[in-house]
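Risk register update: the risk that structure generation would not scale has been downgraded. Supporting records follow, first protein first.
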Amino acid sequence: MLRTQELEGWSLLDEGKPNEALKAFRFETKLDPSRASAQEGAGVALAKLGRTEEALRAFREAARLDPFRAVVWGRMARSADDLGRRKEAVSYWERALRLAPDYFDTRDDERQRWERAIASDGPQAPALPEGVLVETLQRDTSIRNLSMGAGPTSSGSGFFVSPGVVLTNKHVVRGCSTLRVRADSGRTLRADVSIADPTVDLAVLNVDGKTPAIASFRAGEPPRSGEDVVAIGFPLSGLLADQVNVSTGTINALAGMYNDDRVLQMSAPVQPGSSGGPLFDASGNVVGVVVTKLNAKVVAEAMGDIPQNVNFALKASTARAFLDANRIPYTVAPSLAPRTHADIGDIGRSVTVLVECWK
């Protein structure tokens, strides 16, 4: 049900008064920050005012709050296309089509924009939803900071892919004014964001200081369902042991939610703070980047059953394509002889870092 301020906002849009409409939607979002339709309305008003970048942010927030509305993904696509970010636009339109296969049936002009973007920049996989069904694994440390002093606002994980270069998730470094990375040895280094791509949720950090070791991506055949994997990272930093955490599992499926083929599903347990950490195969080569997990509480409330260890990692092929596109060098190695989980843990310990963010 629309509330008074939100209803007024949509009415003001119909009357051609986007400034007044924006004020109404902003008021509503202050009253209820979780209201997706008010965030969407704010995005529409901002778009009409020519504030396209701000509009895109509002639509992203609306999609995060309610990831099942195809029209919101379409609005995101149009905004990204207006900003010249065609790959991003195509990925949003693809998500809209996954949610509503008839999306373009009454949107011929939008379909033509989609086709032009594909002709220009090629097809793209559907954008990853950031809605309530999945939890990004960024560790919020703000509550701990209130009692323990001025520490980082949040934290995640990352790993060295070349000298002075750390790969992590984009959401780990979103909105950070200061970044530091800390190796398992306890050594802390200053870092800066070099590249960030919200479409694939990956970011590259430039790190000052000596690189302890570099991870190798798996060469040759891609991983298969049923293979053993080892996830390395710094989950629940400040609560668990102040060292790299090693968890084991298997690859359950070679696609993520909504058949997203950029992602694989795995059973290795992950927690907030695991985001951006490497996922290794049985030979100690990287086959993925930990990114998210299914929100067990929400699924249990909706379906009456608690899902267990339904976690996701961006495939190494996705990460390598991102690094290739940005001309970031990295190492590959064949996966031949299997290693023990303890040996893989040692490899992960040498290349994985805690990423700390101050906002």
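Supporting record for the second protein:
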Amino acid sequence: MSRVLVISFTDLAADPRVDRQIAMLRQRHDVLAAGLGPPRRDGIDFVALEDPPRTRVGRLPGLARLLARRYRDVYWCHPVNRRALELLAGLECDAVVANDLPALPLALALPGAPPVVFDAHEYAPREQEELRWWRLLMGPYVRWLCSEHIPRVAAMMTVAPSIAEAYEADTGVPCAVVTNAPPRADLRPTAAHEPVRILHHGIAQPARRLEQMIRVIELLDERFTLDLVLADGDPAYRRQLMQRAADQPRVSFPPPRPMDALVRAANDYDIGLYLLAPANFNQRHALPNKIFEFIQARLAVAVGPSPEMAAVVREHGVGVVAEDFTAEAMARALRGLDRPRIDELKARSHAAAQLLCAESNTPRVLELVEQALARATGHGRPQAPAHMDARGRSASS
């Protein structure tokens, strides 16, 4: 049994993708974890990393180095990264899984040079490209991190085909697709309600323009209601949304559910809604947890024309895709759904749930780690992993 270290600068118990990753890896390996908060699974050795400092004094030296394009110093003079290396230097492991770009240089610097599997999650070089200061200041630094470190990884994965293609074009490194699908849920579709119950769950972030979904309900008739289940994020923005919907009795804000109870709680709804007007590359090509959670909950799915989300909806026939990202277009798409049609879409989600689940991704994650271990021992040559597409199949099939 190999010893695999998982690194993520997040609260591991609240990070769905890393939580699933740990569950997959421990089926075959002894797993260690390092993050800002411990994993929710018992029996895993944990190293607590430190939160980045929030003080002005802590930021100024990094800014000066960014302006001077001393990018190696930007990373390694950061006290959190230095301290993380100290904390992890004494650990023995056979391979490392580094989650997100900030963990990658750290993983590659560990003593003994264990092989690194990089889970890029999303596309870092264009993360906040809509912000001019980010493009000018952070963009070059992030591109340097990618070009300097990604070619050194033993294997790599990301969340969606278009993001994998972008990384491969940038770096020449083969990139597998491991979707954000949750574990398969033992559920059946409920009959469509009257009024039809629409659900959106996620983080309250102004960049997601969640007020657009409130506007959708205002444009629909009395047959539809909306529950916005919002966790964490920006409390002030959540309050703004509640004020925005104060005169709309068909919009409610139920309390958030624990991560492992989310899908089961969603089963008593009819439609999962996500309308995300893209401001950057990652938003345009988003393929988030919630789409797969809606499907596992056996809901019909309603999305805007985001390419990756729309591909899943159309491939499996589980819902509707609006013509554009406006509330008006989404209202038109939903207005044509009656209860028999919703029941049909929910039945199709029930069929798709058997494939679009974490269990379908597990062989791919284990394969990538085995590839890294084989490369480290010289018992195998690194191979380009076959893509797993947004529909959960090998792209070569």
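The longest strand covers residues 196-203. On this basis the risk owner (M.S.) recommends closing the item.
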